[in-house]
Specification:
Elements (H helix, E strand, L loop, with lengths): L33 H11 L5 H21 L5 H22 L14 H28 L7 H29 L5 H16 L17 H10 L13 H28 L6
Helix pairs in contact: 1-7, 2-6, 3-5, 4-5, 6-8, 7-8
């Protein structure tokens, strides 16, 4: 069931997601008007050139484009659950296949009838395998596959699923995310924008609205031009200041992890 927050918008899920996009907000454009820019500049305490405004429009436009896809990104636990079921199915295949190897072929006394039944069952299984292999050859057009080929494929699938689990686990630990990543990245880019122009970017966490940092006032006023579904942490200047600090920390950590992975990856130049 979809959860609705106090603002009336859908509440973000705290479940870890895979970092793949299944949608975008291409229809939503960011186009603040002259009056909007004047309010933003007044809140920031600094004028913005035409080039500055174009840069901000581009950054926010990227946020509008990618943010809606966050809610459609698949959950890590769903992927792992599906992989669990695939692995169980593969194990069941091998368990059924190996039943034949445990079939006794001789018996005497009270065991004679059991041995005979087991031998017939083993022959029936062999009959199935031979015909499955025959029909595989008939219906597999790209290459000739028989029963042995099927076993090879199933063996390869087992190894592939082990590697898939390792990859999903590592990716989830490295770049798996909960909703909000795109907002964090917007804040990181707006910070870089301010620093590159020697504009204020420092943060003060004062609860007094009159003491809010220039950058916090800038983000607050900028967000007021956003449609409601794109605004974040707007309950107070203090909440926004804390969210900006956390966003910067998260993205800085993510960049460090990505750089470390590049250094440690095989084949990278030293």
């Amino acid at each position: 069931m979809e959860r609705i927050g106090k603002s009336g918008n859908r509440r973000k899920s705290r479940r870890l997601r895979l970092n793949i996009s299944l949608g975008s907000g291409a229809e939503q454009k960011f186009a603040p008007q002259g009056a909007d820019w004047r309010l933003i500049e007044a809140a920031y305490g600094h004028p913005l050139t035409s080039a500055d405004r174009d840069t901000i429009v581009g950054l926010v436009g990227q946020y509008f484009f990618w943010q809606p896809g966050e809610a459609r990104a698949p959950f890590v636990d769903d992927a792992v659950d599906y992989l669990d079921r695939l692995e169980k199915a593969g194990k069941r295949f091998w368990d059924v296949l190996l039943e034949r190897e445990g079939t006794p072929m001789t018996g005497s006394g009270d065991q004679a009838g059991i041995a005979e039944e087991d031998m017939m069952r083993s022959n029936a299984m062999g009959f199935v395998q031979s015909h499955v292999g025959r029909f595989l050859k008939q219906y597999e057009f790209r290459r000739q596959t028989d029963w042995r080929g099927l076993l090879d494929v199933m063996g390869a699938c087992t190894a592939a699923m082990v590697q898939s689990r390792k990859y999903i686990t590592e990716e989830a630990a490295r770049i798996g995310f909960v909703e909000g990543r795109q907002w964090d990245q917007l804040i990181w880019k707006l910070t870089a924008f301010a620093e590159a122009r020697a504009l204020p970017s420092r943060i003060s966490k004062s609860a007094d609205p009159s003491q809010a940092s220039a950058f916090v006032r800038f983000v607050r006023e900028l967000q007021r031009t956003f449609p409601a579904q794109f605004r974040r942490h707007a309950t107070s200047n203090a909440a926004l200041a804390e969210a900006i600090t956390v966003a910067r920390r998260k993205i800085k950590r993510l960049i460090a992890q990505q750089e470390a992975q590049k250094i440690n990856s095989p084949g990278q130049p030293t």
